[in-house]
Amino acid sequence: MKVQNKSFRLAWVGLAAAALVILVLPPVLPPFYVSLITLALIYGLVATSLDILIGYTMMPSLGHGAYFALGAYTAAIMNTKLAAGFWATLPVSILIAGCFAAVLGLVAMRAAGVYFLMITLAAAMCVWGLVDQWVDFTGGENGMSGITRIGFGLDLNGTLSFHYFTSAFYIVCVGLIYLIIKSPFGRTLVGIRDSASRMQVLGYNVWLHKYMAFIIAAMFAGMGGCLYAYFNKFVGPDDADLAQCMEFFLMVSMGGQGTLIGPNIGAFIIVFLKNLASIYTDRWVMILAAIYILAARFAPKGILGLPEQLREKKKAEAGK
Amino acid sequence: MNGKNMNNGQNALFCQKLTKAFGGLEAVKDVDFRVTHGERRAIIGPNGAGKTTFFSLINGQHPVTSGSIELLGQDVTKLPAHKRAALGLGRTFQITNLFPTQTVIDNLVISAMGLMGTKFSMLKPLSSYRPLYSKAEEALKSVGLLERDSVLIKNLSYGEQRQVEIAMALISRPKVLLLDEPTAGLSPAESHMMSEIIKGLDPSITILIIEHDMDVALSVADYITVLHEGRVFMEGSADEVRGNTRVQEIYFGEE
Ligand SMILES: Nc1ncnc2c1ncn2[C@@H]1O[C@H](COP(=O)(O)OP(=O)(O)O)[C@@H](O)[C@H]1O
Ligand SMILES: [Mg+2]
To answer: Quick check: A172 contacting B, CB < 8 Å?
Structure first.
C-alpha cells in the first residue's frame, strides 16, 4: 500500500514536470529549444506506439522507423506535389503505414526472437532503399524540401504555435494508446505476453490479437511521421535509416519498456543528446551505440525500471 | 468418413488412432479413446507415458501426427486451439500457467473474456466492465479465493495458484474439461480441498483428469484409462485397474 502511494505521488510529480516542460516553459525558451521539445514529442509518440510491440506484445520490432518514414514521405509527397494539407495527408499516412504493417506482419509474425528483429529491420531497410533510390518521386538522397504547413485549420507557421498544436495532437494520441493498453484488447496483449498458451486455451486467437497490435502500432507511427514532415518541412533518407530505427528502439528500451511513459522520457533524452552532441561531434551513431551498451548493461529495464532494479538488488544483498 | 456414424451422439470426446511423434519419439501412439457426456474419467500412467501430450492433442495445442479427434460430435482434428475452446473445451496445466504480472481478479477477468466479443473493445478501460468483474468474483468465491483478489499472481502460494488455475478453466463454463494433475505438488490438506472442488463441479461437465494420486483419481472418476509408453494399456473400473497385476508393475511398482 505504501509503495503504491509513493508511486502515485511520483506519477503526479512526473505529470506536473511534463506539463511544465511541454506547456508552460516554451513561451520563455529560445525557439531552438522549443523545436527540440516539439521533436521529442513527435518521436515520443512514435516510441510510445513501439512500446505496444516491445513492452506489451513481446514483438521487438527494429523496423518501426519504416512506418514513421512512410508516414513522413506520404505527407511530403502529397503536400509538395498535390498541395495537400495536414488533415488530408494524415489519414493517408496512417493508411499507408497500416497497410505496410498488414503485409509485413504476415511474414514477420511467422518468426520470433532474433528472426523477428531481423525481418522487421530488413523491411525498414527496404523502405530506406526505396526513398533513397526512387529519385523522381522522393528526391532520392536530396530528400524533399518545400513542405508547407497548410491545411491545419490554423496558422502554424510560428515555432510556438506549431509546438502547441503538436502538444495537443501528442496528448490525444498518447492518451489513445494509453486507453488501448488499459482496454480489454490491451489487457489481452498483456495476457499474451505473460502466457500465450493460456490465452489460446481460453479461446483467444493469439495470432490475431498480435497482428492487430502490430498494425495499430504502425498506424500511430505513421501519424508521427506525418506530423514530422510538417514540423521539419523537409524529409530525407536519414529519417528512414538504420540509426533512426535504432533510436526508436533505444527510446523504448532506455526509458523503460512496458511503461508507456518511459519511451517518452527516452525520446526527450535522445533528442536533446543528439542535438547537443552534434554541436561538438558528428559521430552520433557511435554515441548512440555507446548509450545502447551502457543502458543494456546498467539499466536493462530502462530508467523507469531503475527503482525496481535497485529494490531487487537491495533484497538480494539483504538475503546474503 | 465413418467417424460420424460411429459416434452415436453420446460421446463428448472420441479419438481414433491418435498419434503424436516428436521427431523419432512417439509420445502418443494409436490411441482410441471415447468418453460419454457427463462422464468423469481418470487418466493414469507413469511419468512420460504421454498423458500431457494426449491432452495437448485434444485441445489443439499440438497438431496431431495422425488420427482424428471428435469433440461434442464435431471433427476438430484440424481446428486451432482457440476454436476448440469456443466449442466448450477447457483445460488446466500441469505446470502452473497463469498471468504472473497480473492480479488474481484480472487473471479471471481475462479468462472470462475469452469467448466474448468484448475482447476486441479498445475505447473503454477494462476496469469499467463491471459484469466481467462480478463474474470473476463469483469464480473466485467458488474456489475460496475471494479475499485474495487484488494480490499479484506471483505473490500467491503455490496451492493458491493451483486454485486459480482451476477457476480460470471454469469461468467460461466448459462442457468438457481437461485437468492435468490438479493436485501435483500440493500438501495433503490442499490436495483434499482440491478434490472436493472437483467433486463439487456441475455433474453435466465431462471431466478428464490426469492424476498421479490414485486416491484422488478414484474419488473423482468412475472409470480409468491407463496410458503406458504412449499407448492405452488398459481401461476399466477402479477395481479392475487395481486388480491388474501388470498395471501394478508399470504403475504402482515404480512408487
Ligand atoms: N514438446 C515436446 N517436444 C519433444 N518431446 C516431448 C514434448 N512434450 C513431451 N515430450 C516427450 O513426450 C513424452 C511424453 O511426455 P508427456 O506427455 O509430458 O508425459 P506425461 O504427461 O505422461 O508425464 C516424454 O518422453 C516427453 O519427453
Ligand atoms: Mg504430464
So the answer is: no
What phi-psi label fits residue B23: left (phi over 0), alpha (psi between -120 and 50 degrees) or beta? left
Strands (E), B89-169: 89-91
Residue B113 contacts A where some CB pair is shorter than 8 Å:
yes
B182 in Cβ contact with B51 (< 8 Å): no
User: From the CB of B53, is ligand 1 less than 6 Å away?
Assistant: yes
Say whether residue A204 is in contact with chain B using an 8 A CB cutoff. Answer: yes
- Residue from B89, B109, B126, B164 to probe the interface with A (highest A Cβ count within 10 Å): B126
C-beta B230 within 6 A of ligand 1:
no
What's the CA gap between A225 and A222, in Å, rounded? 5
Provide the ipTM. 0.88
pLDDT (tens digit per residue) in A6-23:
777 877 888 888 888 888
CB of B201 closer than 8 Å to CB of B73: no
CA distances from A291 to A42, A121, A273 (A): 21, 20, 10
- CB of B22 within 6 A of ligand 1: the answer is yes
Tell me, yes or no, if A314 comes closer than 8 A to chain B by beta carbon. no
Residue A140 placed within a domain: yes
**Residue B118 and residue A184: Cβ atoms within 8 Å?**
yes
- Rounded CA-CA distance B242/A241 in Å is 70
Domain range annotation of chain B: 1-88+174-255, 98-173
Please identify which residue in the block is written with the cell numbers 536530396: A142
Count of domains observed in chain A: 1
* Position B237 pLDDT exceeds 80: yes
pLDDT in tens, B167-180: 999 998 999 999 99
* Within-domain flag for A309: no
Q: Which residue in chain B is spatially nearest to A200 when comparing CA positions? A: B82
- Name the more confident of A134 and A279: A134
Does residue B236 line the site of ligand 1, with CB under 6 A? Answer: no
Would residue A229 count as lying in a domain?
yes
**Closest residue to atom 8 of ligand 1, CA basis:** B53
Cell match 528512414: residue? Answer: A240
**pLDDT, tens only, A133-178:** 887 787 777 888 888 888 777 877 888 899 999 999 999 999 999 9
- What CATH number matches the domain at B1-88+174-255, 3.90.420.10, 3.40.50.720, 3.40.50.1000, 3.40.50.300? 3.40.50.300
Give, as one character, the DSSP assignment of residue B2.
-
C-alpha cell at A305: 525500471
DSSP conformational letter for A153:
S
Full domain range(s) for residue A114: 30-241
